[in-house]
Write a structure and sequence with these properties.
This protein has 15 helices and 16 strands. It has 592 residues and is α+β, with helices and mostly antiparallel strands. The chain folds into 4 domains: 202 residues, no CATH class; 109 residues, Beta-Lactamase; 67 residues, Helix Hairpins; 170 residues, Heat Shock Protein 90 (2-Layer Sandwich), CATH 3.30.565.
């Protein structure tokens, strides 16, 4: 007997079981039972009882054909056929809800008529009561269990109407049969309700799965739309290093590097024209970014050249691992390819420009220095004029040194000659040189380095560093503000700090302040001219000394540059700790 459950309309239906490995055979109509029409389902629910009645009829036809002479028996068979026909003909959909539940009640009547027709001898036919009992037990009828019990009890009393006394067997059937049917009715009712609950839960979960699936498809479409719209090539790898996703830009890169439009977008084919950063050396597949990412290597800015002249392009590749769900092993990698051809061309053009302009400036500056030297050698030169010419000569010499440094920095030949140097003298000279510019803007220079501060440094180069830092601090500070210079020794190193209370920078600008030709947004808004090269040269000088330079800044609150240099061996400074801001020292109010 298959499990039975109830549709929302109340019709008992055969519950479709999930296909399990050990239960592969199913009735033809079992899987699609819920989609059948109401009349068809009513007929199918009545068929088990009708089938058993056919068996009973066959047995009587073979074993006791005289039973067919009994009009009640014949009437019972006829009524079963009529009821089955009614199940198939009556338009149950048009009748009031659950009107078809009259069928199991009529089954009780027909079974009682059969028992009355055959007599007490065939009282075991009472087992047919299980069909209407189960049908009623799974229905939505409120008094279904009570009706099933009453129908069973009434049917069990029918054989007692026949002549003869009440023996122990009849009494046992009278008591036991209703009790058994009541137990079956309660059990089926509980199971049916549980099945209904599980079916409702499955329906809810199925709806949620469908919703999540639809949302996942929408997100997938959005992801593909986003990755296809960016101008960066993308290759995604799974944990085994297999390519799972590429975008249109990456396909375009593959076409540029390949020999046809079916070139591999991961740029790993050996025949693809891919060259190292020098643009000449062929890059082997095992050294390419996607192969390295598949081997769980991180790639940071690997420069590649794709294709041949004149259509070749330069791309910068970056690869990062994706953390797996367990947090231990990587779940895959993402490789990004960015076209940097224009950026490289711009950098080359800037380098050519700086080299050319430096050469062009050197010629007239050399002439200026020559004439200043001749003027200073004049015997009748007034002392005041001579002093002014000496300042001009000194600054022209410094300008010539700066131009030479630009050329050397671009060529990577900046020369450093470190020696034990008292940075306090370098600071004083730099403050003196910057005094006139600071006075013109009414900016105070607060020199707090009034003690010996010895470091292993090239004094001329460190003069350039301080000139650049002081010049920037004055340039990007408002009138009436203060620029402070502090110095101390810490952990075997000499530290200089130049702080202003000027415009400051946000975090994005602060991270790029040492990039070549970069100028902060506040500097651009201020309208102050600059090339964006001073801090590049400054950082180069400090790092060639084996030191470091750091910057701290906040928009509208000022900027602080901190230079750390190795202290000179065998020398010590009286400044052992960092002085407090605003503490005593040589204060030069440059406004006068």
């Amino acid at each position: 007997m298959p499990w039975i459950t109830v549709q929302p309309a109340g019709l008992p239906v055969i519950l479709e079981r999930r296909r399990m490995p050990q239960l592969r055979a199913q009735l033809p109509f079992a899987r699609n039972f819920h989609s059948l029409g109401l009349r068809t389902r009513v007929v199918l629910c009545q068929l088990p009882l009708v089938s058993c009645m056919l068996v009973v009829t066959s047995v009587f036809a073979l074993a006791e054909p005289a039973m067919f002479a009994n009009p009640l028996f014949t009437l019972c068979l006829l009524l079963h056929a009529v009821l089955l026909a009614a199940c198939a003909v009556v338009p149950w959909e048009r009748l009031p809800e659950r009107s078809f539940q009259i069928v199991p009640v009529l089954d009780f009547v027909l079974i009682a008529l059969l028992l009355h027709a055959v007599g007490r001898t065939y009282s075991n036919l009472m087992l047919l009561l299980v069909f209407p009992v189960i049908w009623l037990s799974v229905s939505k009828f409120k008094s279904r269990i009570l009706v099933a019990f009453a129908g069973t009890l009434a049917t069990a009393l029918v054989p007692l109407l026949a002549p003869g006394g009440l023996d122990a067997g009849h009494l046992l059937r009278l008591v036991l049969l209703p009790s058994v049917m009541l137990a079956i009715s309660i059990s089926v009712h509980i199971i049916a309700n549980n099945m209904d609950f599980q079916r409702d839960q499955l329906a809810v979960k199925e709806a949620e799965v469908r919703r999540l699936l639809a949302a996942s498809r929408e997100r997938e479409q959005l992801l593909h739309a986003v990755v296809d719209s960016i101008d960066v090539g993308l290759v995604a790898l799974d944990a085994e290093g297999r390519v799972t996703l590429t975008n249109r830009q990456q396909d375009a890169f593959a076409v540029r590097a390949g020999t046809s439009r079916d070139a591999a977008p991961d740029l790993q084919q050996g025949r693809q024209r891919i060259y190292d950063g020098d643009g000449v050396t062929f890059l082997a597949p095992e050294s390419r970014p996607v192969r390295r990412a598949a081997e769980k290597q991180d790639v940071a800015g690997q420069l590649l050249w794709l294709g041949e002249e004149p259509q070749r392009i330069a791309v910068s590749a970056t690869a990062r691992s994706i953390e797996g769900q367990d947090g231990d092993c990587p779940g895959g990698s993402v490789v990004l390819f960015k076209d940097v051809t224009n950026q490289l061309a711009e950098l080359a053009a800037k380098d050519d420009f700086m080299s050319g302009i430096s050469h062009e400036l050197r010629t007239p500056l050399t002439s200026i220095l020559a004439y200043l030297e001749l003027a200073l050698e004049h015997p009748d030169l007034p002392a005041e004029v001579a002093a002014h010419l000496e300042v001009a000569d000194r600054n022209a010499e410094r300008l010539l040194t700066l131009i030479s440094d630009f050329l050397s920095a671009s060529a990577g030949t900046l020369e450093i000659r470190p020696e034990p140097t008292d940075l306090a003298d370098v600071v004083r000279a730099a403050v003196q040189s910057a005094a006139a510019t600071a006075a013109a803007k009414d900016i105070a220079l607060d020199n707090q380095v009034d003690h010996e501060l010895v470091a292993a440094a090239d004094p001329a180069r460190m003069g350039q560093v301080l000139d650049n830092l002081l010049s920037n601090a004055i340039k990007y500070s408002p009138a009436g503000s203060t620029v402070s210079i502090r110095g101390w020794q810490h952990a075997g190193a000499s530290v200089l700090e130049v702080a202003d209370t000027g415009y400051g920078m946000d975090d994005a600008d602060r991270l790029r302040v040492f990039d070549r030709f970069f100028r902060s947004s506040s500097a651009r808004r201020s309208g102050i001219h600059g090339t964006g090269l001073g801090l590049v040269v400054t950082k180069e000088i400090v790092e060639r000394h084996g030191g470091t330079i750091d910057v701290a800044s906040a928009l509208g609150e000022g900027t602080t540059f901190t230079v750390t240099l190795p202290a000179a061996e065998g020398r010590s400074s009286s400044a052992a700790t960092k002085p407090e801001a605003g503490s005593g020292g040589l204060r030069n109010r440059a406004a006068t």
